[in-house]
Amino acid sequence: MSNKTLNLTDKVYEYLLSVSLREPEVLKELRAETARMPGAQMQIAPEQGQFMALLIELIGARKTLEIGVYTGYSSLVVALALPADGSLVACDIDAKAPQIAQKYWQKAGVVDKIELRIAPALQTLDKLIAEDKAGSFDFAFIDADKEGYPNYYERCLILLRQGGLIAIDNTLRNGRVVAPALDDKATLAICALNEKLHHDERVSLSMIPIGDGLTLARKK
Fold first, then answer.
1. In the sheet that 137-142 helps form, which strands lie side by side, from edge to edge?
2. Is the pLDDT confidence value at 7 over 90?
3. Is the dihedral of CA 160, 163, 166, 171 positive or negative?
4. Alpha helices in 60-148 (DSSP H)
5. Which of 61, 111, 133, 144 could form a Cys-Cys staple with 139, CB 3.0–4.6 A?
6. What pLDDT, in 10s, does the model give residues 87-137?
7. How is residue 83 annotated by DSSP?
8. Dist. CA 52–CA 168, nearest whole Å
9. What is the pLDDT of residues 134-166, one digit of tens each?
10. Res 203: pLDDT
11. Predicted confidence band at 4 (pLDDT cuts at 50, 70, 90)?
């Protein structure tokens, strides 16, 4: 028995995947293509994607948000888990990488569920609020520029319904949160957000040591 989370060795991690991962072929193909790209480390781990899909099913999500698309693995995970009438507003500032995403969304038959908005994410979120969409979303996934996280979190909290869930990626920063360098602005921003969330009474909170750290905040 252990009173702290298991530190996975490579062999234990391989075992975990072998007995629990149910990754559709289209997701495997997208993950393989992304692995050949320079920014491949930005893609979430497959077991994290499967966990997020389970969360979508558990809360009965229909309207969802994503901040940071890249090649669309997490978008595809969410869209596949959504019901037929579900929708995802996917925000990214880069128009190039999401071209790969759209190819796989089309292949998986979920492209009609996903509305890709290429613009600064804060601009898109503020526009949704201005369009009277506050309190109408069920789920939001934040995985973009780390210094923008605090603003993305606040906007998502406005846009989510009561009981809605925000999932925030990279909240452990590969362990750098323990002693961040003074010039590591991204990690310092994550540390500040982690502290803020710890004391934020507007949400119920759990940080999950999956992938690079996934924080779940449920709007009260």
1. 114-118, 87-92, 63-67, 137-142, 160-169, 214-219, 203-208
2. no
3. positive
4. 73-81, 97-108, 121-130
5. 61
6. 999 999 999 999 999 999 999 999 999 999 999 999 999 999 999 999 999
7. -
8. 11
9. 999 999 999 999 999 999 999 999 999 999 999
10. 98
11. low
| Tokens of residue 52, six digits | 């997020």
DSSP SS3 for 214: strand
In terms of C-beta density within 10 A (0-12 exposed, 13-18 middle, 19 or more buried), how is residue 56 classed? buried
pTM (two decimals): 0.95
Which ranges of the chain would DSSP assign to H, the alpha helix?
10-20, 25-35, 46-59, 73-81, 97-108, 121-130, 149-159, 185-198
| Structure token pair of residue 205 | 């909170």
Tokens linked to 198:
């710890």
Q: Which two tokens stand for residue 76?
A: 């595809």
- Residue in the block written with tokens 């497959």: 46
* Residue 81, amino acid: A
